[in-house]
Design a protein that fits this description.
Layout: H1 5-16, H2 22-29, H3 33-44, H4 54-61, H5 72-93
Length: 117
């Protein structure tokens, strides 16, 4: 069944404004929850067939730029948190301060350090 555009817009507006959940919208408007979910997905993620405009491409180039702060204290707090996060990642990956990876402990049955009788 095909629904009018006005109904789709009304359902999506109610959903995104938090007026009701998907099941509540299903009861209110008589539209199946699977269809409402598909409308939400297409609304949140446009089809990959759509070409990115110049503005979107330029915005994507600046995603990894550090944020700009007006207050130096906020910038300092941000950088400290970022450093702590990166230190934790290094510790979890097993990389030492000198940039080399820690060697894994190998247990062998005939080690050279063991005394032989």
């Amino acid at each position: 069944m095909k629904y009018p555009l006005e109904l789709k817009q009304k359902v999506l507006k109610d959903y995104f404004e938090g007026n009701d959940g998907i099941r509540g919208l299903e009861r209110t408007y008589g539209v199946s929850h699977q269809l409402i979910l598909s409308w939400i997905k297409t609304c949140q993620k446009p089809p990959s067939r759509m070409r990115q405009g110049k503005v979107l491409k330029e915005a994507a180039l600046h995603l990894n730029d550090p944020p700009v702060f007006a207050d130096p204290n906020k910038e300092l707090a941000y950088l400290r948190a970022e450093n702590a996060y990166l230190r934790e990642l290094l510790a979890l990956s097993g990389v030492r301060k000198n940039g080399r990876k820690k060697k894994a402990l190998r247990l062998s049955s005939g080690s050279a350090h063991e005394a032989t009788p």
